[in-house]
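User: Can you recover a sequence for this backbone? Please restate the input before giving your answer.

Assistant: Of course. Working from this structure:
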């Protein structure tokens, strides 16, 4: 199975899971999509240290999981409002913080004598994670907060019309901010300058493609979830 096929299957699966979580939010509250978003952020940061190929492009293995978080943020903004979307951003931030602290402690914790070999492998695999998560935390706060702001800016400009426009316009700029900040902090000094530019270019192209592909999904989810009763909506604002 080719790399592009695997990525497309993975992306479809991620969008499906995020969509289902958002639709469950109709019945159980915004906590479902918020939890899905935090989970995707943690997953993205764990796998981000692996650089993979998408056809001729070079991207981080976390590109699919992280891009899907913008999809969830836009759903939260559209259905539950700006305040709930901003709360989701901070939940994701603290999930990141817990991840990096846990990994740091686990690496520094002396290993049992009989497991030293496995401990070395553990450190080799997850050792870069704190720097990557730090880069992600900074890029994440800037890009996600921009995404929420831009989404509602375009929503106001278009007078609550053209969901596709605010979904894509907010995401494509936010994704550019994210990938430039993240790649520079996470991989500067690790890769050559032309390699960093290649990663930024490749990831941005893939993220723009993902943003365009998720448009039909967001229309479907919003149509289903937006039929929330006034009573439910009040509950969501207290999350």
């Amino acid at each position: 199975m080719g790399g592009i096929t695997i990525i497309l299957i993975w992306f479809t699966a991620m969008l499906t899971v995020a969509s289902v979580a958002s639709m469950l939010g109709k019945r159980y509250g915004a906590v479902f999509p918020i939890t899905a978003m935090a989970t995707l952020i943690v997953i993205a940061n764990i796998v981000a240290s692996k650089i993979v190929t998408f056809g001729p492009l070079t991207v981080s293995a976390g590109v699919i999981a992280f891009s899907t978080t913008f999809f969830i943020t836009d759903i939260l903004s559209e259905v539950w409002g700006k305040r709930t979307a901003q709360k989701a951003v901070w939940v994701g931030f603290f999930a990141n913080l817990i991840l990096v602290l846990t990994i740091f402690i686990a690496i520094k914790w002396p290993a049992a004598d009989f497991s030293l070999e496995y401990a070395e492998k553990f450190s080799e695999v997850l050792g870069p994670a704190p720097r990557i998560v730090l880069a992600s935390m900074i890029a994440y706060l800037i890009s996600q907060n921009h995404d929420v702001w831009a989404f509602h800016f375009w929503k106001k400009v278009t007078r609550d019309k053209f969901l596709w426009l605010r979904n894509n316009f907010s995401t494509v700029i936010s994704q550019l901010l994210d990938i430039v900040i993240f790649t520079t902090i996470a991989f500067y000094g690790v890769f050559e300058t032309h390699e960093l530019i290649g990663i930024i270019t490749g990831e941005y192209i893939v993220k723009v493609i993902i943003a365009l592909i998720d448009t039909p999904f967001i229309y479907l989810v919003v149509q289903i979830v937006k039929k929330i009763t006034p009573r439910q909506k009040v509950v969501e604002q207290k999350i």
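That completes the design. The CA atoms of residues 89 and 144 lie 7 Å apart.
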